[in-house]
Amino acid sequence: xxxxxxxxxxxxxxxxLDTQRPxxxxxxxxxxxxxxxxxQLKEISLRLIKAKQDLLLTKLKKSDYLFxxxxxxxxxxxxxxxxxxxxxxxxxxxxxxxAIVCAGTGDLPIAEEAAVTLEVMGNRVEKFYDVGVAGxxxxxxxxxxxxxxxAIVIVAGMEGALASLVSGLVQSPIIAVPTCCGYGANFAGxxxxxxxxxxxxPGIAVxxxxxxxxxxxxxxxxxxxxx
Length: 227
Description:
Layout: E1 9-11, E2 16-18, H1 21-25, E3 31-32, H2 38-50, E4 55-58, H3 62-69, E5 76-78, E6 83-86, E7 97-102, H4 108-120, E8 124-129, H5 137-140, H6 143-146, E9 151-156, H7 162-167, E10 174-178, H8 190-197, E11 204-206, H9 212-226
Parallel strand pairs: 3-4, 7-8, 7-9, 9-10, 10-11
Antiparallel strand pairs: 1-2, 4-6, 5-6
């Protein structure tokens, strides 16, 4: 089934693709890949491309990307972030930028997910990686530039203290992303999530565990409002 989208969505039978999302939200519907078959991912992707919309497939396995690449030769892939993406057209890039601060190398996949999301949505991104609290002097050298960011995405596992630390030093809004990186009592990211939620430093919004996409999307909304 492939019904017309005059009601604002395209009925593919297994999914009702929201074709009016760019008009409401400023960006196309993003495809969460797990749980979908390769055939379903292919049909959704081709329909979005036909509608001249950006394509962003999160948590996409490399094997599934290679399958989609046969039908979508221009599709690109960030293997670390596990994101497939294809931009329909160039965007007006805001003057300001979003900083991504990553605690450790183990958190890089989630930081990269946020970075790709921001870039596909047309934002300038600056990355500050491996600057966690275990060696806080590494962070301090980044502060002058961080203070100029319109928004800062903080990605951290273990106890998740990096968000509170950065928030206490800058005026920029913080989007904190807890990751599942950590030993047993980290509870697969729950410890970091609770730390970020309970921060005494104001100005921190927290997304779900390993949700780099959600953080990137939110930061893009902030950055585009400020310009």
